[in-house]
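Incident review: delayed structure delivery

Summary: a single-chain prediction request sat in the queue longer than the usual turnaround. Root cause was a stuck worker, restarted by the on-call engineer. No data loss occurred. The affected request and its eventual output are reproduced below so the record is complete for anyone auditing the incident later.

Affected input:
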Amino acid sequence: MNNTKFRYVIVGSGLAGVSATEGIRERDREGSILLIGAERDLPYDRPPLSKKLWTGKKTEEEIVLHPGPWYAANGIDLVLATRVAEVDPHARVLLLADERRIGYGDLLLATGGIPRTLTLPGSNLPGIHTYRTLEDYRTVRERAAPGTSALIIGGGFIGAEMAAALHGTGVRVTMIYPESRLVPKVFPEGLGRALQKAYVDRGVEILSGQIPVSFQRDKESLVTSTDLGRRIKTDFVIAGIGISPSLELASRAGLEINGGIRVDATQRTSDPHIWAAGDNTNFVYPGLGERMRLEHWDNALQQGRHAGRAMAGASESFTAMPYFFSDLFEFGFEAVGDVNASLETVEDWTKENDTGVIYYRKEGKVRGIMLCNIWDKVEAARDLIRAGRRLSPAELKGALR
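Output delivered after worker restart:
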């Protein structure tokens, strides 16, 4: 870096950060941009880490967001394998972990999330992994030879996706989680139990209603003990227990935080020269008018681009309604809005627990929609949520099929 001050500095080289550079360049072709990433790899798409990289539908090269020369060609200084230690919002300066100081005109915190780690006896043993980065994928892929065995801790999306991915490569998979069914925060009970049975029918061993309490080594294997007295011997363990938003820099900089970095409709934080986008951000979800924090690909894409445009002078409000998706063996879905299993659900199946639409309602109004093995209906689902009308179960039947 020749400059010590940049017009725009973006901390976080994930999808939100890269999308922000694109948003900036839509409005400002000349302003200097510094993009700082903690990982050593070129910025890449994260969803394939638990999906298409395992099925062979994508290669590592194909998930890179832009080739290396693209950044220089667009006047973007890209600095990888570098961590930011501190933000001084008064001086508008970043202190890097290597003690370099970088000034900024406007700053974007696109720092994403940090995998939650286990704090149980033996949880620091070799062979126990979190799963978030391309480097994590490489490490696990090297261990996941056909015939090996894995324990996956957690029954949410990352656990369910990794169980499917590893099983597809010939790994013997066991899952353990305290809930009674898969993905209980999102899936209604019937769907969660049906998918759980589908996993068992494929040979995945599921220990629901249990939690691990300790780990130990037995020669080349890891032995996991559960609260119900089970001892599970596997070659490796993946802790898929979610992420926590990366808020440390924002908190120390004095930004307003409410479960995430609080932003306005332009992605601006409580500091007029600092913006935030992606997994770490608390924002008002368009169409619902309520604040939430989302850990989804489309949210990072949309918020990052919007924040970049706003940093470069745009004044539009964020109107995108981000969606998310997953593939669990043959079951795939796209979902938009507030898909919270604690809400009232109306299920409209053409094939029970396989093909159909789940509507998530509150006081008769649709707040979220999950399209199960139904495609190209996300925009229609958004329109239904935006309408904000009270709709009966009978009126919802066939509405999006």
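Verification: Residues 65 and 395 are 42 Å apart (CA to CA).
Action items: add queue-age alerting; document worker restart procedure.
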